[in-house]
Amino acid sequence: MTEPHAHYVGLMSGTSMDAVDGVLVSFFPDRVHLTCTHSMPYPAELREGLLRLVNNQGTPEDLGTADQWVGEVFAQCTNELIAASGIDRKHIAAIGSHGQTLRHHPGGPHPFSLQIGDPNVIAERTGLTTVADFRRRDMAAGGQGAPLVPAFHQWLFQTTAETRAIVNIGGIANITVLPQAPQDTVLGFDTGPGNGLMDAWCQQHWQQPFDEDGRHARAGTLLPQLLHALLSDPYFNAPPPKSTGKEYFNLQWLNQRAPGLHQANPEDIQRTLLELTVASIAKAITDDESIGGVYICGGGARNTMLMKQLTHQLANYRLCSTQDIGLAPEWVEAAAFAWLAMRSLQQAAGNLPTVTGARGPRILGAIYAGASTLSIR
Ligand SMILES: Nc1ncnc2c1ncn2[C@@H]1O[C@H](COP(=O)(O)OP(=O)(O)O)[C@@H](O)[C@H]1O
Ligand SMILES: [Mg+2]
């Protein structure tokens, strides 16, 4: 029998802006049960508006509209998810909504991270308590506000059997290193571009949002000098804590680092961008001699060419999907935000200060009351 309030919803849309990923989960002491999943692409008009905002081509009017509209899409995703699950809403304790990142700017005198998708709209449309705005408290405490998934990775995936690396390949890629000795420090940081640069190049040259199964990359040849020039960006050698976003690793960055790209074969560039993702992830792994198993999650796990090249680069490691340790790769991030919502309601910390660089553990997120909160008062 289902205990009341045993379930949580997690909602995530990453920098790829491909779709809202929703999960309905329940947490047991040492595992997560994925009850139902649902992915909802953004309407084309909204996605175009979001891309314009990311590229500095929007007004405050556009920002407000997008904030409300993303909230509606997140709410619709939740309602469809719940309907498909057959779970009664009264058994759902809360939604954890990451929102849609438009900017992540952890440096400078005024660091900030901007996620939109109005949580008031989500709470109102679903009737469920909604936790959102997870990153900014960590930032206010001097942290990067990212990555936030390592605490969830630690809870779910840490084992005394081996030191594990969890690698999430979304628009940006991030790694969590879970030491075999539970008392040792968990590491985590953004390694650099994941699929984001590949997606942008593919869109520009073939008008396709991503290079399905790495077909264009497969048809191209690695340009070693270009790869070397890209890898010489100081980000890759900077020590953690560090986090980045599409506002840094984008086509403008590519053109600045490698002028004269238009003379090259687009497939060779696509291949070189894939190898950039591979090399920067492989570097993060080989820099840490203790790592045994490497577990991949995020949409990049579906790019067979990317996985082939990663396996080749990391021939001395056991490279698997997170499916092998209990959670399907496409739902790890959304499940993490369901877990972070649970942590917020428990008034427990959601950040790992050793990862983000924050001054200490912090309770993350703001809570927007659901309908039941009103009816009991
Ligand atoms: N079959 C596939 N072949 C190649 N790439 C894929 C495939 N499926 C998904 N992807 C990549 O995964 C990305 C989405 O991954 P996701 O983890 O949702 O990223 P984000 O968290 O940034 O939204 C897509 O933009 C695409 O680059
Ligand atoms: Mg996505």
What does the model show?
The protein has 377 residues and is α/β, with parallel strands linked by helices. It has two domains: 7-146 and 331-375, 2-Layer Sandwich (Nucleotidyltransferase, domain 5), CATH 3.30.420; 150-330, Nucleotidyltransferase, domain 5 (2-Layer Sandwich), CATH 3.30.420. It has helices at residues 44-54, 60-85, 119-126, 136-140, 150-157, 196-206, 215-219, 224-231, 234-237, 251-257, 266-286, 304-313, 332-345, 353-356, 371-375, and strands at 7-13, 19-28, 31-41, 92-105, 112-116, 130-132, 163-169, 172-178, 187-193, 291-297, 318-321, 366-368. The strands form two sheets. Strands 1, 2, 3, 4, 5, 6 and 12 form a seven-stranded mixed beta sheet that branches. Strands 9-8-7-10-11 form a five-stranded mixed beta sheet, with helices on both faces. Helix 1 (44-54) crosses helix 2, helix 6 (196-206) packs antiparallel against helix 11 (266-286) and helix 11 (266-286) crosses helix 12. The longest helix is centred in the first third of the chain and has 26 residues, at 60-85. It binds adenosine-5'-diphosphate and magnesium ion (MG). Adenosine-5'-diphosphate is lined by residues 13-16, 18, 170-171, 195, 199, 210-214, 298-300, 302-303, 333.
